[in-house]
Amino acid sequence: MKQRDRAGLDQHEHNARTPPFLRLRPIRFTLVVGSVVFGMAAAGGVLFHQKTTPASRPLNAKAVPAGPPWIYGRPDARYTVIEYADLECPFCRAYFPNLKRWIDANPDVNWRWHHLPLPMHDPAATDEARLAECAGLTGGHAAFWQAVAWIYDNTRGDGQGLPRAARYPGLTAAVQQCLDSGRPAAAVQAQTDQAGRDNIAATPTLRLLDRKTGRTLLVSGPVEDDALLSAIDLLAAPAAAAPAETFPMSADGVGDMPR
């Protein structure tokens, strides 16, 4: 057998034995003084979807505590994508169905929402975050993600908010009672304050977490599928077996992405 044929078979056998997240892919990172900086998709590569679909894979209410934080995907997934997002951010809106599809295709990863309404989009962004919070607080995780999908489907974006005629179909008496209380505003403000302490000021931003090792990577988004898989590969690599370590990457400026 020719040497190159043998090499091809060896690679095929290696791939068959290696879990998908550990197979080598082109890594689109730049290492700068211990920080891991990921390339992000160009603005032209992100498609704006006029309609998104509600969460089709709700969590088992018995398997995960009530939020926040709000989780989509398997509660026992090893990896978590924490998305810092603004409900008036056009790039977050465009990225929402793409990230949902990617989470559905990768059951070892779940998705956690982190509110970050930007000052340039208020008061609409905070009002919508309060609505999503109350949907979740009264209806659980699936209701939260359905509310986010509905808001992105109906908002005019960029701080213009929902049209006057738009009425959330899940606006029950319990949701209205929640909105009239201070609970949702406190939850949204707490997450916004935490983002500030983490030096995150732009949306969407992703923090990738390996729940087994505690290691994290901070990524400017929106991020292409291959780059997300490469990030998971990096967290899963043997070097990640070292003590938990965080690689920070601060967002430049304040605003929605990409720049």
Descriptive overview:
The chain is α/β, with parallel strands linked by helices. It has helices at residues 3-17, 90-105, 124-139, 141-154, 173-179, 183-197, 225-236; strands at residues 29-32, 35-38, 71-72, 79-85, 109-115, 202-203, 205-210, 216-220, 246-247, 255-256. A 6-stranded mixed β-sheet has the order 3-5-4-7-8-9. The longest helix has 16 residues, at 90-105. The termini are far apart.
Features:
259 residues, alpha/beta, Glutaredoxin, six-stranded mixed beta sheet, two-stranded antiparallel ribbon, 10 strands, 16% strand, disordered N terminus
Describe the secondary-structure layout:
Elements: H1 3-17, E1 29-32, E2 35-38, E3 71-72, E4 79-85, H2 90-105, E5 109-115, H3 124-139, H4 141-154, H5 173-179, H6 183-197, E6 202-203, E7 205-210, E8 216-220, H7 225-236, E9 246-247, E10 255-256
Parallel strand pairs: 4-5, 6-10, 8-9
Antiparallel strand pairs: 1-2, 3-5, 4-7, 7-8
